[in-house]
Amino acid sequence: LPLFERLERRIVDGERAGLEADLDEAMTTVPPLSIINDTLLSGMKTVGELFGSGQMQLPFVLQSAEVMKAAVAYLEPHMEASDAAGKGRIVLATVKGDVHDIGKNLVDIILSNNGYEVINLGIKQPIATILEAAIDKKADAIGMSGLLVKSTVVMKENLEELNSRGVSGDFPVMLGGAALTRAYVENDLTEVYDGEVSYARDAFEGLHLMDTIMA
Ligand code: B1M
């Protein structure tokens, strides 16, 4: 297979051996971020479709996720970081009950490489922990990620909790993840939250939103 098809195939097949050599070769022609966005993510999309239609079992999805994570970790040091530093601080977490973290970690990488300080709390984080970190670190915003449909409900509950703790004015909230839609966030969740809440389709929109929040 040609290089980029082979790389995409590696994600789908969960094939780790020789990954770094292929990534090195790919980086001679395109920047690391394009490799992630144009090649690796379309492999993950295929994985999602295969799993969703019952053609792929969970352990294989996990293997694909491991290869995806290894690839992103390998590419990250090669990414261009902006000189701007200290643009703002965000607490980032995958919500309670949800283990998906590849997208959240991409958001972390993009924000960190563009001058933001990211406090990445990891997966399955209850809102109490997220809020505690946000207060403790004097964060400028809270970011929540979640890929399960039930996580969209958790996000709504989290926003209600922030309201009832009286901190909605302190923390603009950015939400993202495959199960969310812009309409749900912009219609239903803005109704719920007394502060600012916005939807990011991908990590770059997340960066753009942070720039807007900090402007
Ligand atoms: Co899961 N899983 N999974 N899974 N998994 C999905 C989400 C699913 C859609 C697959 C499917 O059925 N087609 C489905 C959810 C269905 C639903 O809720 N209706 C599903 C399921 C069912 C499950 C389990 C329940 C399976 C089971 O146990 N029976 C289980 C969940 C356990 C739990 O959470 N409690 C489970 C487990 C797993 C693995 C562990 C095997 C693995 C995760 C490994 C890991 O993350 N460390 C996994 C994977 C890999 C997937 C799919 C295939 C791929 C997800 C991914 O990494 N995509 C996924 C299919 C899909 O999403 N269509 C699926 C790549 C990633 C870069 O995209 O995270 O969307 P994403 O991030 C994007 C944007 O959304 C955005 O930026 C990123 C791009 O730039 N973004 C943000 C994300 N967060 C953001 C936050 C922001 C801003 C932007 O600001 C704060």
TrEMBL record:
Domain notes: Modular enzyme with four functionally distinct domains. The isolated Hcy-binding domain catalyzes methyl transfer from free methylcobalamin to homocysteine. The Hcy-binding domain in association with the pterin-binding domain catalyzes the methylation of cob(I)alamin by methyltetrahydrofolate and the methylation of homocysteine. The B12-binding domain binds the cofactor. The AdoMet activation domain binds S-adenosyl-L-methionine. Under aerobic conditions cob(I)alamin can be converted to inactive cob(II)alamin.
Coiled-coil parts of chain: none
Binding site for methylcob(III)alamin: 97-101, 145, 203
Family: Belongs to the vitamin-B12 dependent methionine synthase family.
Protein role: Catalyzes the transfer of a methyl group from methyl-cobalamin to homocysteine, yielding enzyme-bound cob(I)alamin and methionine. Subsequently, remethylates the cofactor using methyltetrahydrofolate.
Chain ranges of the B12-binding N-terminal domain: 1-87
Name of the protein described by the UniProt record: Methionine synthase
Organism: Speluncibacter jeojiensis
Domain B12-binding: 87-215
